[in-house]
Design brief:
It is globular and about 55 Å long. β1, α3 and β2 form a beta-alpha-beta unit. α3 crosses α16 and α5 packs across α6. It is built from 16 helices and 10 strands. It folds into 2 domains: 173 residues, 3-Layer(aba) Sandwich (D-Maltodextrin-Binding Protein, domain 2); 95 residues, Osmoprotection protein (prox), domain 2 (D-Maltodextrin-Binding Protein, domain 2), CATH 3.40.190.120. By secondary structure, it is α/β, with parallel strands linked by helices. The strands form 3 sheets. It has a 5-stranded mixed sheet.
Length: 309
């Protein structure tokens, strides 16, 4: 009896785990599975993509927020577990494809589009209109005290400082290893691996002295932090771009037009404001996105669908 009970528990646990990895097992009513990576901006962009699809088509969207980092989302879309997510061109180009960094955004986009089509059968859609590059951030008071504006200038101070970065940034081809080599950045001890949701708090509380954030983070302005200029242009362009499985675009032709309507609709300032509304004012993501889509005329004030092209 005891063996049977153990066998039953293990079997049940395995079934639950498999179901959790299968989107259709969790929600059989959805047509499209939209995922997002594991930080606030991605929560907003995933919801934006989902609401836009629902507002302009008759398709139902299953949401997979906080799925993980770039590599997790990429593997999930290749496996057909998700159908779309928002990626950043530089991340895909250097992180996923392992290509040498290129500074020209048009070149990066065209090469990315071509390779994703041929190698993965994935569609790289037009940019949403803004770039979210890595931002090396320090306290505003330190920037003023030492008159630091660039990464070249900060190198003389980092031997006495502590760095705090996310795991992915420490491991990525376009992340800390190359940055440290380019600017000769050395810290008093190996950089601390930190949760992305805690980096600014740790910086303000002086647990660390430099972090790697994102240029559109709403907390940068709110907390009086300073972004150091990448004066050697180490980072490639990071344009926010929808990645969609070609199979699902062929199955639902109206999906292409719905997503295309978002092209060029979000500026960096607007993205920073959306991030602030969610993180700084703790507003509901669904409502923030809904109001933004209304302001752009993508959905009506009464919530009626806008004709897709």
């Amino acid at each position: 009896m005891k063996r049977f009970l153990i066998f039953f528990i293990l079997t049940f646990t395995l079934v639950v785990a498999i179901a959790a990895c299968n989107p259709s097992a969790n929600n059989t009513t959805g047509d499209i599975v939209v995922a997002s990576k594991d930080f606030t901006e991605q929560d907003i962009l995933g919801e934006l993509l989902a609401q836009q699809i629902e507002a302009t088509t008759n398709l139902k969207v299953v949401r997979r927020p906080r799925l993980g980092g770039s590599f997790v989302c990429h593997n999930a879309i290749l496996a057909g577990k998700i159908d779309a997510y928002i990626e950043y061109t530089g991340t895909a180009f250097t992180g996923i494809l392992k290509q040498k960094a290129v500074n020209d955004p048009k070149v990066v986009y065209e090469k990315l589009k071509q390779i994703y089509d041929q190698k993965f059968k994935l569609e790289v859609m037009p940019s949403l209109g803004f770039e979210n590059t890595f931002a090396m951030v320090i306290r505003g008071e330190d920037a003023k005290k030492y008159n630091i504006q660039t990464l070249s200038q900060v190198a003389q101070y980092t031997p006495q400082w502590r760095g705090g970065f996310g795991y992915e940034f420490l491991e990525r081809e376009d992340g800390f290893p190359g940055l440290a080599k380019t600017y000769d950045l050395r810290f008093s001890k190996p950089p601390q691996i930190m949760d992305l949701g805690l980096i600014y708090r740790a910086l303000v509380q002086k647990q660390v002295d430099m972090v790697a954030g994102n240029s559109t983070d709403g907390q940068i302005t709110r907390l009086g932090l300073a972004v150091l200029k990448d004066d050697k242009q180490y980072f490639p362009p990071y344009e926010a771009t929808p990645i969609v499985r070609q199979e699902v675009l062929n199955k639902y032709p109206e999906l292409r037009g719905a997503i295309a309507q978002l092209s060029g609709k979000i500026s960096a300032d607007e993205m920073r404001q959306l991030n602030y509304l969610v993180e700084g004012e703790l507003q509901d993501i669904k409502e923030v996105v809904r109001e933004f889509l209304k302001s752009k005329g993508l959905i009506s004030r009464k919530g009626a669908k806008v004709q897709s092209f």
